[in-house]
Model the fold of this input.
Amino acid sequence: MPVLDHVVPTTDGDCPVTLHLPDEGPGPWPAVILYPDAGGTRETMRAMADRLATLGEGYAVLLPDVYYRTPGWIPFDLATVFSEPDERARLMGMVKGVTAAMYRSDLDAYLDFLSAATEVSGDAVGTTGYCMGGRASMVVAPHRPDRIAATASFHGGGIASAEDPDSPHLRAAEIRSVVYVAGATDDGSFDDAARDRLEAALTGAGVTHTVETYPAAHGFAVPDNPTFDEAAAARHWTALETLYAEALPRP
Done:
């Protein structure tokens, strides 16, 4: 699997990224940005980017280090991070340290990079994200509706919060992408009220969308998460393949 290492300059510094490409078939390919969960960029996320690159006719998948503002950060062990108080505190501190404004600013830099990449075709870009990355995927959709054509969020938290003035659902009217959201039955960060709030916002804004609840726990799609669910993960790959096939044009 071809994987290219790059550094994307942003307004806050240099962001390491990897660009994952299909093994076979002629490029260039439509681009997809994969936003990692709270554990950040690590081997599991790189493997997921590899798999995403091979869906359908293939995609050029950008995987950014969303914690680049904390250089040299030590990777988390998802099997134990929530049971170890110090590690949990470190994790939550880093999660809170990446704001919606930062995601939006970084997206502009990622899109500039993708526009210049010879491996990438066209201007339309897809996104997907997990946990906090699911929120990031929803946050950036209304920021660059001129470029974001497909938006996916899996067990994303805080995407339809009644208390957060920066909640993505409040900017639904600015979204032009096709949206796919999958929550979990066991997930306090996206409960029934949040699901209904998001559904109402997207419907009211006329956004083409699907909002589903998988019979699984938060974290179901990420293999190194203790709550990983094989059946739910397989369902999520099928959903992504369908979404991008419909929403991301081929040259």
